[in-house]
Amino acid sequence: MIYALFQLLQDIDIPGARLMDYITFRAGISFALALVLALICGKYIIRRLQKMQVGEVIRNLGLEGQMKKTGTPTMGGVIIILSILVPCILLGNLSNIYMILMLVATVWMGSIGFLDDYRKLKYHNKDGLQGKYKVIGQVGLGLLVGITMWLSPSIVMSQNYSEGSRPTAENVVIFNGSDGSSTIFVADRDSDDGITYSKPEKTPQTTIPFVKNNNFNYEWLTSWIQDKNIANTLGWLVFVFVVIIVVTAVSNGANLTDGLDGLCAGTSAIIGVALAIMAYLGGNVIYSGYLNIMYIPGSEELVVYAAAFIGALVGFLWYNAFPAQVFMGDTGSLTIGGILAVFAILIRKELLIPLLCLIFFIEDLSVILQVGYFKYTKKKYGEGRRIFKMTPLHHHFQKAGDTSVKCLVNFPKIPVPESKIVTRFWIVGILLATLTFVTLKIR
User: Which helix (H) or strand (E) holds 176?
Assistant: First the structure.
């Protein structure tokens, strides 16, 4: 809204009206506004939740300090969602397809998480919304995002530029369309007819590490098909399938990671910073050419969204840090996971998620392995055995070692304080984010 207003002010030559054209300026304001909103609104929302007696239902798992959390207000994810939506609506370009998809993903996953928390509180149990309905919602979002990226003419990308044709301030040309849109072309070479320009194309490509140019085209998986149109269609279908898997996995991983005060919010903020940097570099034709990475026209608008996302999480941490005054609940964790997944997909970095979001996947994997091993040993030996003392993995470190419990990993013997576990997970998250950038330069 404010962004649109400033666009109108430019037509009448108001001083300072062009400030809104700068992504860095709007991103900075977006971060600050989201942070302030989370701090101010968070206090009132927490009070309101307390009056409504919207307290977390805690099961006694024998963990130190666990039962003290009983009655702590949950559904605090509303603070995060509100603090993201307001800055983006005010400062974002609402005609940008990338911004639209991120706002839809936020509301979509927020609604699923809200229904889950509502059922938990209404029926006073930890079951909430049935798992199959959560998965249906996640698959639905994956389909929406994948098909939109396939069919939307606004979502295109450019191959990595070679050394001789990298974009510079001199060879970048912007052509304005009759519909008000603009397309960036890069001078490629001289021809008999003059200068030719490289044009962004519609293709299901993504970024992978350790290879030249860091690009992978999903159409390569169907290149054995002679008909190019069919091969292209099948390549996009593979892409849509990958999108569904990524959205479901990351959303559930963030949901499982939300078990300690500040763990999910802090870890997600670190991932958000990494994705924001990638979006900024990939959305700038000069920087992407210099760094030899994929250029995605229009994706620079995602930096404004990412700034609001980071600001909202930092503001939420003010109340969620140990000892927490409020929990985000599934309203927050499912939304955060969906946001990170969709954001990575839009900037074509979904195949870097296994490293960047490794904490989420380890939490996911620990539960899968624990359940699978327990069922296997119960069938084979007549009694279930465990790999970890407790899952998700962060609870394993909270529980004291016990030789009477048959589990493969029975250390540490002394339980680690909750705040120390969270801090160490944050440090690991920073390391993973750094390694993700490093892999892009190891070719």
Answer: strand 172-176
Structure tokens, 169: 């301030």
241 to each of 31, 105, 145, 150, 275, how far by Cα in Å? 33, 17, 11, 12, 22
Q: Which of 314, 302, 263 is nearest to 32 (CA)?
A: 314
Residue 293 is predicted with a pLDDT of: 84
Q: How far apart are CA 387 and CA 396, in angstroms?
A: 10
pTM of the model: 0.90
Contact 73, 56 (CB under 8 A): yes
Q: Which tokens hold the place of 412?
A: 């540490």
Element (H, E) at 47: helix 23-51
| Chain-centroid distance, C-alpha 440 | 19
Name, in order, each residue with C-beta under 8 angstroms of 38's C-beta and a sequence gap of 6 or more: 79, 80, 83, 311, 312, 314, 315, 316, 318
What is the per-residue pLDDT across 111-150, written as a single tens digit (0 to 9) for each?
Answer: 999 999 888 887 776 777 888 999 999 999 999 999 999 9
Cβ partners under 8 Å of residue 315, min gap 6: 34, 35, 36, 37, 38, 39, 42, 79, 83
Query: Which residues are bridge partners to 76 per DSSP?
Result: none
pLDDT in tens, 384-432: 889 998 889 998 998 877 766 778 888 888 888 999 999 999 999 999 9
Low-confidence residues of the chain: pLDDT under 50? 175, 177-181, 189-197
- Give, in order, the Cα–Cα distances in Å from 170 to each of 186, 187, 310: 9, 9, 35
The per-residue DSSP string of 290-349 comes to HHT--B-TTGGGHHHHHHHHHHHHHHHHHHHSSSPS---HHHHHHHHHHHHHHHHHHTT-
Tell me how far apart the alpha carbons of residues 20 and 5 are, in angstroms, rounded to a whole number.
Answer: 10
Q: Within a 10 A sphere around the Cβ of 11, how many other Cβ atoms? A: 8
Q: What's 169's DSSP letter?
A: T
In this structure, what token pair is assigned to residue 13? 């030559």
